[in-house]
Amino acid sequence: MDDCIFCKIINNEIPSTTIYEDDDIKAFFDVSQVTPGHTLVVPKKHVKDIFAYDEDLAQRVFKKIPMIARAIKASNPKIIGMNICQNNGEVAYQSVMHSHVHLVPRYSKDDDFSMHWGDNTGVASDGQLKQRAENIKQHLED
């Protein structure tokens, strides 16, 4: 896409600090560096979000995540964990509409990164949960 910042980074029209690249992906530092080593993994093919992947592209992109995550962790003995985030849609905090995975190294509980998971335990009945599951199952593809 002509106006996509990630496509421009992939095409070297905008500089980035690249840590890994192959025919399918480019992994580079997020300019925000939420924590030191914060890396984005993007497919070279422009896909908007997780819903736009075909199975082949998904396999080629997502199989590299563990390798890159291990390299980031091994690069700094102070890293004690890592958040791996993939946001889809503006409401889910996707700010660039080119699919990307955030690898956010964690150094402590107080390292300026947080996530909040609401606890809705017991809000839905067992019947409601079963109905939700059936609705999803009807749309699964093998």
Key descriptive features of the protein:
HIT family, subunit A; 25% helix; alpha+beta; HIT family protein; HIT-like; catalytic activity; 4 helices; HINT; 5 strands; Histidine_triad_CS
Structure description:
By secondary structure, the chain is an alpha+beta fold. It has a single domain, classed as 2-Layer Sandwich (HIT family, subunit A), CATH 3.30.428. It has four helices and five strands, in the order H-E-E-E-H-H-E-E-H. Strands 1-2-3-5-4 form a five-stranded antiparallel sheet, with helices on one face. The mean pLDDT is 95.
In short:
The chain is α+β, with helices and mostly antiparallel strands.
| Extended strand count | 5
Largest sheet: 5 strands, antiparallel
Order of helices and strands: HEEEHHEEH
CATH C-level class: Alpha Beta
Radius of gyration: 18 Å
Domain module count: 1
Determine the mean pLDDT. Answer: 95
Distance between the termini: 30 Å
Task: Furnish the topology, listing elements before pairings.
Blueprint: H1 5-10, E1 18-21, E2 25-29, E3 39-43, H2 55-62, H3 65-74, E4 81-85, E5 101-106, H4 126-137
Antiparallel strand pairs: 1-2, 2-3, 3-5, 4-5
